[in-house]
Amino acid sequence: MPALQHLTLPNRRFALGAGFAVEAVKYFKYWILAAVAIAFLGPLALSQYRDIDLSTWYYTANIAKWFTSFVAGGFLFTLVPNMIAAGMTRRELSVAMGVFGLLWSAALGALVFAGILAERAYYGAMGWSQGIDAQGTISAIGTWGETAAFAAVYPLMYLAYFAAGAVIGAAAYRWENSGWLLLVPILPVVFSLDNAVYDTEPFGPAWAGVLGRFMEDWGRGVVLTGVVIVAAGLAVATRQILLDIPLRSKKA
């Protein structure tokens, strides 16, 4: 990342946000490559013992949502004092985190989008069925257009999970002993919306989808609008916590 002193004040927050995203991708590149390899080679190995009718990319992409939350929360909780001590203002850090979240979500979402489409061609060539477990029933994702529409929402979902992780990480730093409790109201909202997008249960604790029963009659457009509103609300909450965050020495 470029040194703080070499950037003008109006621009450095954006450059740093982009730098955070680039460094995070570089740091986790082997994890990402391993996930891609497993997603494509796993079905080939399993096909020796059973018919393949489930999309491995779907489940890999769901795990990546939780991973995204951990990246956002862990980054803020660990590096907030270092960033401020290095000369960043709290306002700059909030903007940089926003840029980081947008770029990370877009990059990971683009990878998943390409992966799901590549998997469709791969499964088609192998004579397999690309499906998901929708409420206990295996349902094929569908045509190329339906597959593209299915995969296109992932950047938005990653952004929502990033915002959720960021606000919990910021709160855990701001209120050392109790900030993590924000997980309790945030998780069911984000997870239930995620559940409602695909009318299925994504990878994670079943209890967290309790609000899904109130969303059963919502159209997909309404659910996605809800995801946008929740992601924006969590981003605003993260910013407000960061603006009010104290700088203190971490205990040994």
UniProtKB/TrEMBL annotation:
Keywords from the UniProt entry: Membrane, Transmembrane, Transmembrane helix
Residues passing through the membrane, by range: 27-46, 66-86, 93-118, 152-173, 180-198, 218-242
Keyword field contains Transcription: no
Superkingdom classification of source: Bacteria
Keyword Disulfide bond: no
Protein name, entry field: ABC transporter permease
Organism the protein comes from: Glycomyces niveus
Taxonomic lineage: Bacteria, Bacillati, Actinomycetota, Actinomycetes, Glycomycetales
